[in-house]
Design a protein that fits this description.
The complex is a heterodimer of chains A (472) and B (160). With 472 residues, chain A is an all-alpha fold. Chain A has 2 domains: 48 residues; 357 residues, no CATH class. Chain A is 87% helix and 0% strand. Chain B has 2 domains: 62 residues; 89 residues, GMP Synthetase, Chain A, domain 3 (2-Layer Sandwich), CATH 3.30.300.30. Chain B has a 3-stranded mixed sheet, covered by helices on one side. In chain B, a hairpin with a 2-residue loop joins strand 2 and strand 3. The radius of gyration of chain B is 41 Å and the shape is rod-shaped. The two termini of chain B are 75 Å apart. The chains are: A mainly alpha (472), B alpha+beta (160). At the A-B interface, helix 4, helix 9, helix 10, helix 11 and helix 12 of A face helix 1, helix 2, helix 3 and strand 3 of B.
Chain lengths: 472, 160
């Protein structure tokens, strides 16, 4: 089309200016283009119009095939009916034999289910859930609605019996409700910040450039903004510290229960492998985050704030130093912990599954399957321990989500609002105040990283425990 | 945390002094000299806690906390497993015509393996079915037990 257009244009221009320049190239392009168009039309015509006949042919053939297939089906049906007519007695005898077997096996299944249920109840009564019940009792109303149960034991029993679908259904309303609650709570603060800074920018235009009055006005405005910002930062800092403390308490309560159940099942190697890692996580790492990482965050925020007071007092690099220090320490802890835990956990799980199976055969008490269902009493106890272990593990994860979700959302919303406010104010005033707000938002990422790091390490530990020692 | 808050207050105070100096003093060489001196003060205040800190005295022994496994829970489960095994043997003996026997297994779990030392079979309440009357019951009972658990004949003890 381009060659056609170019050729036509060239030709038209030459005609217009009556140059009578016979443009061979343009003419050749036109002819070439017309030829291509005709060929394309021909091909299209063949492909689009011919299938009408092909379709007819195909339809006709498929109709023929249908008749043939139907006739074959009729033949087959006739044969089957004939078989059934002649083989009624044999068929009835076979069905009676299998129905009696099935009813016996169903009875065996019911007895097994009762036995399993009794074992599970016995084991749950033996475990102390007081600390975890207190954790659920101390949750906010929205978090309690999400969990849906009043005690940790009820959550565990719900997972064992499969009646905890409400938790999955409640998550999205809980998440959206939390999100919008925090947005509505924090937007007024940012409206005040924007109003103060707009007022300052109007005043600064009136005041002398670079004079003492201008500096004093700036310091007054900055003082107001910094007070609001630090109030918000302290609020999320308290929430984060509380969440870390709650996670530590949960870990100290759940990990011994899971290790005990794993030992009772027979996963001794796994339990001995996981014990030091869980001890490090629940005591060492959690304490390190609360006593070292959180102060590092505080220093970073303080230097960020103080450095924004005056252009001459520059402390930005100190703030960045603490941010880098934080990133390095968290990265190293996280990587080393997860790598060691995953590799050693999986290898010990393999060792346990092999030794569990060999131990079972070594006892020679592997009673032959009766009616297709396991009748070994020891396996029923192990089964019930496995069910209890996995139910406690997943209940712990639900409690973790209820503990950590709200603080993370809160911090995330504040970060976004700080960045949005900084973006709104950037064209309205000097860059110091928007830069300060943006720097605060970047520093608050450290709190999110703290919570996520501990939460993910906790989640991976519980997931590995749930995956291990499940072999029967 | 009080040390941290004192440190932060010191830094804030020095910086505010620097801001006041910047505002109050006229522009000139003196202003620049004072700014330099204040900057040095600020750096000294920031670095000063490192000299007096207790980094050398930090105790890392508590980093490995203790997680104790509830051994009584494990022992109860192991006891239940042995009871289940005893019940299985009694049921098997009942199917073979030796009703109302009481089996007591003496053994312990080493890691996940059950090491059975002795099996006591109490025949005081034994009820024989008519088919089993003329057969040596001790041999048959031992055979039934050996089919289920890996134990030698000498470790099966009967008492009546």
């Amino acid at each position: 089309m381009e060659s056609f257009g170019g050729g036509y244009f060239y030709f038209a221009v030459s005609m217009k200016y009556k140059k009578r320049v016979f443009d061979v190239k343009g003419l050749f392009c036109c002819i070439k283009t017309i030829f291509i168009i005709l060929i394309s039309l021909l091909i299209c015509g063949i492909t689009f119009f011919s299938p009408i006949k092909n379709d007819d042919n195909r339809l006709y053939k498929s109709h023929l095939n249908k008749i043939e297939v139907q006739s074959e089906v009729f033949c087959i049906r006739g044969n089957i009916n004939g078989l059934i007519d002649y083989e009624d007695d044999l068929f009835n005898k076979i069905s009676n034999h299998f129905s009696s077997k099935i009813s016996n096996n169903l009875l065996g299944v019911e007895n097994l289910e009762d036995e399993l249920g009794e074992n599970i109840d016995k084991q749950l009564d033996d475990i102390d859930f007081d600390i975890l019940d207190n954790q659920i009792g101390n949750l906010d109303l929205s978090e309690k609605d999400f969990v849906g149960k009043k005690s940790f034991l009820e959550v565990v029993k719900g997972f064992i019996s499969g009646e905890n679908d409400s938790i999955y259904n409640n998550f999205i309303p809980y998440a959206l409700g939390t999100l919008f609650d925090f947005i509505l709570e924090y937007v007024p603060y940012f409206a005040v910040i924007i109003a103060v800074i707009i007022g300052y920018s109007l005043l600064s235009n009136v005041a002398d450039d670079g004079g003492g009055v201008g500096r004093i006005v700036y310091i007054a405005c900055f003082g107001t903004v910094a007070t609001i910002v630090l109030k918000l930062v302290i609020d999320v800092l308290h929430s984060s510290e509380q969440a870390i403390s709650l996670m530590q308490t949960q870990m100290e309560a759940i990990f011994p229960i899971l290790l005990t159940l794993m030992t009772a099942i027979g996963g001794v190697v796994s339990a001995s492998t996981f014990q030091p890692f869980m001890a490090i996580l629940s005591s060492g790492i959690a304490k390190m985050f609360s006593s070292i990482m959180v102060p590092v965050f505080i220093f970073s925020i303080v230097f960020c704030t103080i450095g924004a007071i005056s252009k001459n007092v520059k402390l930005e690099k100190f703030s960045k130093f603490f941010t880098s220090l934080f990133s390095w320490v968290v990265g190293v802890i996280f990587t080393v912990f997860i790598a060691f835990l995953s590799v050693s956990g999986l290898t010990s799980a393999t060792a346990d599954s092999i030794s569990l199976k060999t131990a079972k055969f070594a006892i020679k008490s592997y009673v032959p399957m009766v009616g297709g269902y396991l009748s070994d009493g020891m396996s029923v106890i192990v089964c019930s321990s496995v069910l209890v272990k996995n139910a406690i593990g997943i209940s712990g994860l639900v409690l973790l989500v209820a503990t950590v979700f709200a603080p993370i959302i809160k911090i995330g919303i504040l970060i976004l609002l700080f960045k949005l406010t900084s973006a709104i104010l950037e064209p309205l005033c000097d860059k110091e105040l928007p830069d300060f707000l943006f720097a605060v938002s970047k520093t608050m990422n450290m709190l999110v990283v703290c919570l996520l790091a501990i939460g993910v390490m906790y989640l991976i530990s519980i997931s590995l425990v749930m995956c291990c020692a499940n072999a029967l | 945390m009080s040390e941290i808050s004192n440190w932060i207050l010191q830094i804030t105070g020095i910086v505010l002094c620097g801001v006041l100096v910047e505002v109050l003093l006229p522009k000139g060489k003196l202003n620049k000299i004072l700014k330099t001196i204040l900057a040095l003060f600020i750096v000294m205040v920031i670095i000063a806690p490192l000299k007096n800190s207790d980094i050398a005295k930090l105790n890392f022994s508590n980093i490995f906390g203790e997680l104790n496994i509830d051994k009584s829970f494990v022992e109860r489960r192991e006891g239940e497993k042995i009871e289940m095994l005893e019940q299985t043997i009694e049921d098997s003996l009942a199917k073979n015509g030796y009703m109302d026997t009481k089996v007591n297994i003496v053994g312990e779990f080493c890691d996940e393996k059950l090491n059975i030392e002795t099996v006591f079979v109490d025949l005081t309440g034994l009820v024989l079915l008519s088919d089993s009357l003329n057969i040596n019951k001790y041999t048959n009972i031992v055979a039934v037990i050996k089919n289920l658990i890996n134990i030698s004949e000498e470790n099966v003890i009967f008492y009546e």
